[in-house]
Amino acid sequence: MSAEPARTGFSRAGLRALQVCGIVWALPNTLIGLILGAVGMAFGAHVHLRRSDFALVFHNWPWGPGGALTLGNVILHTGDTLDATCITYAHRAGLGEEPEILLVDHERAHVYQYMTLGPLFLPLYLLCGGISVRNRFERAADRYAREGRGWWPFTREHA
Questions:
Q1: Helix (H, G, I), strand (E, B), or coil: what is residue 54?
Q2: CA 37 to CA 58: how far, in whole Å?
Q3: 3-state DSSP call for residue 67?
Q4: How many separate domains does the chain show?
Q5: What is the model's pTM?
Q6: Distance between CA atoms of 110 and 45, rounded to whole angstroms?
Q7: Residue 25: other Cβ atoms inside 10 A
Q8: Residue pair 7/15 in contact by the 8 Å Cβ criterion
Q9: Secondary-structure breakdown of the chain: helix, strand, coil percentages, each rounded to the nearest 5
Q10: What Å distances lie between residue 125 and 34, 39, 117, 134, 147, CA to CA?
Q11: Do 73 and 55 form a contact (C-beta atoms < 8 A)?
C-alpha cells in the first residue's frame, strides 16, 4: 500500500483512492480498536498517528500479555514505541527463523491485511488458527517484517 506509483502501476491519485477505500473497508474493525483505545486512555494509554503506517497507535495500552494487537487501522500497543524488536512466531515455536524483527513492520502488515480484507479479516484470522505460528496471517506479517514484502497471507508459501 505504501509502494511508489511507478512500482504498482497506479497513478498517485489512483493509489491514494485505493488506500482510502481500504481504510473505509476496514472501518468496522477500526471502530472496535478506537473504542478499546479510548477505554485504555482512561488508564494511561496515549494516542499517536502513524501516517506512513495508516494507523492510530495507542501506546501504553494497559491490558494484555505485552506486544501489540491490530484492529483495522488501530494498533493497541502495551509499550512505549513500536520501533522495538520482537521475536518472530516461528522462532518462538523453535523453527529456527531469524529471531528478531521490528514490531512496527509486523503490525503494518496486519494493517494492510485489514485494509484488503476489511470485515472478513477477523473471521479468516480465527479460522487460520488465531494467535499462533500456524496462522498464515502471522507468518506473512513476520515475513513482511523480515523482508519488506509478502504481507498477503494467501500465497503458495503459506499453503
A1: coil
A2: 6
A3: coil
A4: 1
A5: 0.89
A6: 21
A7: 19
A8: no
A9: 50, 15, 35
A10: 20, 24, 10, 11, 22
A11: yes
Residue 52: give the domain boundaries.
5-158
DSSP secondary structure, 14-31, as one string: HHHHHHHHHHHHTHHHHH
At residue 81, what is the residue type?
T
- For residue 61, count other CB atoms closer than 10 A to its CB: 23
| Single-letter residue type at 73 | N
pLDDT tens sequence for the chain (159 residues) = 444 444 667 799 988 999 999 999 999 999 999 999 999 999 999 999 999 889 999 999 999 888 999 999 999 999 999 999 998 888 888 777 677 999 999 999 999 999 999 999 999 999 999 998 899 999 999 999 999 999 999 987 644
* CB atoms closer than 10 angstroms to residue 3: 11
In the numeric block, which cell numbers belong to residue 100? Answer: 528478531
